[in-house]
Design brief:
9 helices, alpha+beta, LysM, 3 domains, EC 3.-.-.-, Resuscitation-promoting factor RpfB, disordered N terminus, hydrolase activity
């Protein structure tokens, strides 16, 4: 039996042929062990059709950055497509420089995924998700956020960003993400800055 054709997710994101996958789904009787090929549903980020409610399981890598990179560059962290933007999160050279990216590499596409995310977290703190207007809207991301760092507390974050209502307002805005104990916030968690 021939193997199904292979295509990369990045190829599909650039307008190539949609990926085909073999599914072990029984859509009625299986005839002589036939392999059923179906067109896999493409992520909305790759196809550009409408809004999606994405979760960490929907995107490769670190949520939400894996989803944003999938939308911005087809998930290619080394992207340099000639459009003036570079890397997985498609930084303009001036933004990369302004937010400290030159400490890692001369342009974003030469930096690692983690280095690009470190710069993006600083951009997110200052500009909010509007720095990635189309892709953030696609995944329902809005507002300014802070990524919890080791040693952070809700009260320290509230003071640092001048949150009106202090740590209590910050906790209420992030109760689902933080959980029942406001004294326990985990590094890497995104906090909405109200």
């Amino acid at each position: 039996m021939p193997k199904p054709p292979r295509s990369s997710r990045a190829g599909a994101a650039r307008g190539g042929a949609p990926a085909l996958t073999a599914r072990a789904a029984l859509l009625g009787p299986v005839l002589a062990g036939a392999l059923v090929l179906v067109q896999a549903p493409q992520p909305e980020a790759a196809t550009g059709r409408g809004l999606v409610a994405a979760t960490p399981a929907d995107c490769p890598g670190d949520w939400p950055w894996g989803c944003v990179a999938l939308c911005e560059s087809g998930g290619r962290w080394d992207a340099d497509t000639g459009n003036g933007f570079h890397g997985g999160l498609q930084f303009e050279p001036s933004t990369w420089e302004e937010y400290g990216g030159l400490a890692y590499a001369p342009r974003a596409g030469l930096a690692t995924r983690d280095q690009q995310i470190a710069v993006a977290r600083d951009v997110l703190r200052r500009q909010g998700w509007s720095a990635w207007p189309t892709c953030s809207r696609r995944y329902g991301l809005a507002g300014r956020h802070h990524t919890v760092e080791p040693g952070d507390s809700l009260s320290a974050v509230a003071r640092r960003f001048g949150v009106e209502g202090g740590w209590q307002a910050l906790y209420e805005a992030n109760r689902d993400a933080v959980g029942a104990d406001p004294d326990l916030i985990l590094p890497g968690r995104l906090l909405l800055l109200p």
